[in-house]
Design goal:
237 residues; alpha/beta; Rossmann fold; two-stranded antiparallel ribbon; 8 helices; 11 strands; 29% helix
């Protein structure tokens, strides 16, 4: 039986069963994404669907499709949509990001989003459990394959938003550009003032022109060590 709780008082219901605890990365990415007039979005590697839920809460115009390789996580994502009566505005497809050409038509989406594995298979600590290993390392989908999938799925002018590690920014930009998705927005996330960035929030545009906007860094804590006002806003605290 799923144990649902509110993401914030009066907010969407979400059950962590069948996946991993709610991570900061997806919450920050959802806040970074501006759905605008987008009508069809896809969450690549959606896990239990928290990013899709947060984006659906942000825009009533948006329909989200979650694509998830692990069947147990896909089932949990469907349950999360049902718990919020969002079946009409969201769907979960159990499938492989590397096989998007067999699952969807080219240019089907206005918006793509991803909280992908951060570490290549030859680098970074990898958990022994299969599910956790897939979530942390690129053994099931490389950065190159992710960017290729997003480029195929997006219409011209569509946007791809993802969160990644700052040390891999050059790789992210090269992969995006190589697949015709031009980096347009960047925001770095820092634990506090004077701290090196720990995350990078990135938006690219399919067929976009050159020109990158670098936004002020997102500080998770202030100089006093307490949560920043912006982080409290994001978490509705």
């Amino acid at each position: 039986m799923n144990d649902f709780c509110e993401l914030w008082p009066g907010g969407p219901l979400f059950a962590r069963q069948g996946g991993f605890p709610l991570g900061t990365d997806s919450v920050l990415l959802a806040d970074f994404i501006a759905p605008g007039s987008a009508k069809r979005g896809v969450d690549l590697g959606c896990g239990t669907g928290v990013l899709s839920l947060l984006l659906l809460e942000k825009s009533e115009k948006l329909h989200m499709t979650g694509l998830e390789l692990r069947s147990e996580a896909a089932a949990a994502a469907r349950a999360n949509l049902a718990a919020n009566a969002l079946e009409a505005r969201g769907e979960i497809v159990c499938g492989d990001i590397r096989a998007v050409r067999t699952l969807f038509r080219s240019g089907s989406f206005d918006l793509a989003a991803a909280n992908p594995p951060y570490f290549p298979t030859e680098r970074g600590a990898v958990a022994p459990e299969d599910a956790r290993a897939a979530a942390r390392s690129e053994r099931c989908c490389t950065l190159e394959e992710l960017c290729a999938a997003a480029a195929f799925l997006l219409r011209t002018g569509g946007r791809f938003c993802l969160v990644h590690r700052p040390e891999r920014l050059s790789e992210v930009f090269v992969c995006l550009h190589g697949h015709g998705v031009e980096p347009k927005r960047l925001r770095l996330v820092c634990a506090g003032p004077g701290r090196a960035p720990s995350l990078a929030l990135i938006e690219g545009r399919r067929g976009g022109g050159a020109g990158l906007s670098i936004e002020p860094p997102l500080l998770l804590r202030g100089a006093d060590g307490n949560e920043s006002e912006e982080l409290r806003r994001i978490y509705r605290r």
